[in-house]
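Lab notes, practical 5.
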Amino acid sequence: VECCSSVAFIPGIKASRLYKMEDGSENQLWEPNRNADVEKLFLDSSGTPIDSTIYTRDVIDTALGLFDVYDNFIDFMNGLVADDTIAGWRALPYDWRYAPDEVVKRGVEHTDGNIYFSESVPAGELPFMEKEIAELAAVSRTGKVSIVTHSNGGLVAKALLTRLAEKKAAGESDLIDKIDKLIMVAVPQLGTPQTIAAMLHGDDQAMLGGLILNKQTARLFAKNLPGTYVLLPSAKYFDVVSEPVITFSNNISNAANFGGYAPDISSFAKLGQFFLAILDGRSDPTFGDIATPNILNSTLLNSAGNFHVAMDDYEFPAHIAITEVAGWGLDTMKMLNYYAKRRCPLCSDYVLKREAVNTKEGDRTVVWPSVINSTNNGNNLFLNMSISNMTNNENKLHRSILEIVQLQELILNIITENDTLPAFVYDEKPLVSESERRLKLSVYSPVSIAAYNSAGLHTGIIPNPNPESDLVLYEEKIPNSYYSEFGEGKTIGLDDDDTYRVVLNGTDFGTFTFEKEETMGDNPSIITTFADLPVTPVTVAEVLMEPGTATTTIQLDADGDGDFDYTLEPSDEFNPILFLEVLKQFVISLDLPPKVEKVIIKAIDEVIKKIEKGKIKDIEKKIKLAIKKFSHSKGHLKKIPREELEALIQMLNELLANL
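Output from the prediction step:
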């Protein structure tokens, strides 16, 4: 028997580039250079692209020239052709805005190589993917094609096989007989909880290995995006996963009318009610209101439900060998938790908050039960990405899983029908060890967070090399680390097996909270909190993390001069004296006229004395009077630049709110 079949590769969602011609030149809209690029990709309420001239041409090798997506995988596949293992291979890019069952019906390739999925396929011609597979089969040594898929590409493949089976039954085509293998890597066959947070709030839109969209833009884009709806947990997801996908705190009614859903959402029917606000009657949030969950598109929600009814129990043709590979060992969102929190320590009103609850049984995006679908009767495998990352000294997550050398070796073995399993690949699900310790470091309010390991590798925000771009870029160089912006918080996840220097930089005026959560296995064990610490744009704080160290302190440089002014112990309470001491340091850093600086410092010292004596009412009056004076900037205050006066007013208002 000849070996081996040619290969077609179907990439994941948002992993094909999208383009548009504008004023005679080509504009790459995805991967985007700015949020405005994404706005040009919006769809209407029926899920139809507003602009029908968008086209694709290629899959993403290196996003923005900075972050590998399929770069090494493409080299690997080219190598299989070069060494004559296979006769050929092709990547099949597609317009991922469409649902998988629409993708396989569409795709018209023009003579310039551009592929339009918004155009109708001419009579007598094949849609793009069918045409490509037929051409690959024609030159394959075996006359057959093996399909490799990543993430959403697996759902597209299932829709394609369904279509080809229908064509054979109708006597129109035997192309399905020419497919011999299907390799499904990290495919969310039953959806995944992370999509819930993305669609409702625009959370965790960390894409392509280093790109963060504006949350408001990301959420608005997702609302009418059919390709995203199929990634929500399906009805079958709740049959195989016992844990809820959304939980609510006992006091949730103080912040939102969610009592009808409490204490949790653990059924497909109730999840649909929450998506459509059936039990709480909430209205569509405004563009800037990211705290309130969005109301989803009922038509697209129903269409996605129908897709899963057909696909979740799909039985593959017996002649196709199925392999399902689940990534495992990385922090992956398994549920979204909503809770009510007081707006400030002494405030009577509450605000709605949310947080992600993670499990190690996933690849950072998809939990394993969604990938390993028992009805497929395939070869079910697990790739321990945690060990792989540590061994290879790299940090591959869901989006870059195909860059892992051992996974490429597995794909080669399957293509060549070699039953050997490479390192880190297992035919049984690994166990979550209670001895495996993880760190989750979160900051809330106006600070950034970055981490450096003992080798100097960095995880956190990096400068955007494009000065005209409004996108946030980040990197995750530390093995098994991640950077996430979820809710109002910014989080870095780390293995607790190295020494880390964590750096916090102030970005505005106010207070911030730093929280360290130590996890053993899947269970949170110790949470250390530094609450309501004062911050200004010049504030710098550092935390040294050493393996297994129980105690944690923060060193605070209040004026940004490079010397630490305070060493702080954990505390859940606001410290007004510390706040005022930091405010003094900030005033000194402003380079004010000496007389003006002296007057302000003296006033701050007087407030500190009154706090020490417990005279809160006097303090409130004094602060309000100071705010009034700063607002009018009369007399000697005229010598202070207006922006610096506004900063002082902001700090005093923050102090007033927290007293």
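Observations recorded by the TA: The radius of gyration is 27 Å. The mean pLDDT is 90.
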